[in-house]
Amino acid sequence: MRRIAESGYSTLLMPDFPRLQPAPGPTLATVAALTDLRVGTWVYASPLRPAWLTAWEAHSLTELTGGRFELGIGTGRPGIEDELREKGAPVIPPNERLAQVQETVRALRDLDGPDHHTPVAMAVRGAKARALAAEVADTVTFAQLPDESRVEVARLARDFRNLRDVELANHVSVMGDRVAPFMAPPDTDPAVVRAADSLATLPDDPAAAAEEIQRRREEIGFSYFVLGVDFADKFAPVVAVLAGR
Questions:
Q1: What is the CATH number of domain 2-242?
Q2: How far from the centroid of its chain's Cα atoms is residue 116's Cα?
Q3: What pLDDT score was predicted for residue 2?
Q4: pTM for this predicted structure
């Protein structure tokens, strides 16, 4: 984590994978105590815990980090139903999961009160999710298949910006010929992703990657780029090139 901070990255994010890591809350609090990084979740799955519990943890992290925590939240990745069954939790339909997201943010705003504003990032796709994000989110990313074209995601970004001007995040799961673990389906083929001109990939050449990020900023409006920790060292020169821009 110190190496990531020293490389110039602004934020360390953790996914909501209960079986694969320590819980995000204590881990992120530790990272914030040991570094100057911002920290956040990418993203909490709303059906895994009650809305009030997620809100309480998020507000607590805002307090513990001195305002350096960002709550990323969504309705759950593909296959979340199987995980809920394994845990004996109810499997609820997507519209109810979205209502959980809404209730979580409402509870968080109550806990934050007038003295805090925990930034909320939402992963969205459908019309209802985009409408909710336009009401409550500070940052928005668009759930996409790795081989989905740039044109389609750019259209989503343009249409969303017509609803509200918020920060747009680009989730990058492929760099060169490498696929970031847990950020894309395991059968993702980098060649297919590149052929689709997908926004889920960046070149592994630092100069080319920096140029492509500038293009996405100018043409689409992305200003927040999320990539896997396995890419951190490879991407560090890109961070250095873009620092301050």
A1: 3.20.20.30
A2: 21
A3: 74
A4: 0.93
